[in-house]
Design goal:
mainly alpha, 14 helices, EmrE-like, cell membrane, globular, disordered C terminus
Length: 321
């Protein structure tokens, strides 16, 4: 493995790492604070970090799209992301980081079922098997010690909504995904601030307090959102989507590790549940057939085909991590 291959792989793996740690950061940022205000601040800061990059790329590639088009494409998806983030963040502060990080991965299992419903066909047997494995894993994860918490149900609801949205939006091409992503993040921020102002009790707790809480908020806005988007965008130009999928599937592992690092304890049964959910996610998200084909092609000495950008897919995932 040379540096040309190692650098993008390391970037994508670091994205999976910060996403896994994000649930610890969410709890630190929102401890005693208003979830709506935390979300509004997180995505406002992320927009401020990404907007200069989007403006620079727009000047270099004026034919790629317009802000008006990005607004038209981005605001409906932004409203859906607002729902996902609200459920996920409220859930994350009401359960443990490891449980939240593993449960949100269930979205990958929902995608093929939602796609089958959209296409009015039965799910493929592989997806059905993976779904059964994931359900068993969730039951093991939530069963022993403490039972099902309100936060677990909220995170699972966020995973279901994200899976449905991903399935319904998966075949749409975006000529300017970075600009559309900036719009989506802006909608999430504006919607969160609006909820804090208009929904009774949504602003209770106020802003984050303390250096630790603000540090966690900056971590969520920077590494977990802005950095993740840019790192994936750059890496997708230098490696294959298959390699990206393999590396990103490690996110629940990092989430569980982060939870253990801050004092969470997982018994043997719960660890088995984590493994089952991870296995189901890997079976559905990693294109194993194309990986084998790519390996055979490299073995014959052929060159790799150009890699399409995957920033749009990242936007659906990374900003909800």
């Amino acid at each position: 493995m040379n540096l040309r291959t190692l650098a993008p792989d390391a970037a994508v793996l670091s994205v999976a790492l910060v996403w896994g740690c994000s649930f610890v950061a969410v709890q630190a940022a929102a401890a005693g604070a208003s979830v709506a205000l935390v979300l509004g601040l997180r995505f406002a800061l992320a927009v401020l970090l990404l907007l200069p990059v989007a403006l620079l790329l727009a000047r270099r590639r004026p034919a790629a799209g317009t802000w008006r088009g990005a607004l038209r494409r981005g605001w409906p998806a932004g409203l859906l992301l607002l729902v996902i983030f609200t459920l996920e963040t409220h859930g994350a502060v009401r359960t443990s980081p490891a449980r939240a990080g593993v449960l949100i991965a269930v979205f990958a299992v929902v995608v093929p079922f939602a796609a089958a419903l959209r296409e009015r066909r039965a799910p493929r047997w592989g997806a059905a098997a993976a779904g059964a494995v994931a359900v068993g894993g969730v039951a093991l994860l939530l069963g022993p010690g403490g039972g099902v918490r309100t936060g677990d149900l909220l995170v699972l609801a966020a995973a279901v909504v994200r899976g449905v949205v991903t399935a319904m939006d998966g075949d749409r091409e975006d000529p300017d995904p970075l600009r559309s992503t900036v719009v989506r993040l802006g909608v999430v921020s504006a919607g969160s601030f609006a909820a804090a102002l208009l929904v009774p009790g949504a602003a209770d707790g106020g802003l984050p307090s303390g250096v630790g809480a603000w540090g966690a908020l900056l971590f969520l806005a920077g590494p977990c959102t802005a950095f993740a988007l840019l790192a994936q965008r750059l890496a997708s130009r230098r490696t294959s989507p298959e390699r990206v999928a393999v590396l990103l599937v490690t996110e629940p592992v990092w989430a569980a590790a982060a939870g253990v690092a801050v004092g969470e304890r997982l018994g043997a049964v719960q660890v088995l549940g984590v493994v089952l959910v991870l296995g189901a996610q890997a079976a559905l998200r990693v294109p194993w057939g194309r990986l084998r084909a790519a390996g055979a092609t490299r073995g014959r000495g052929a060159t790799r085909a150009p890699v399409a950008e995957t920033t749009g897919a990242l936007a659906e995932h990374s900003v909800s991590a």
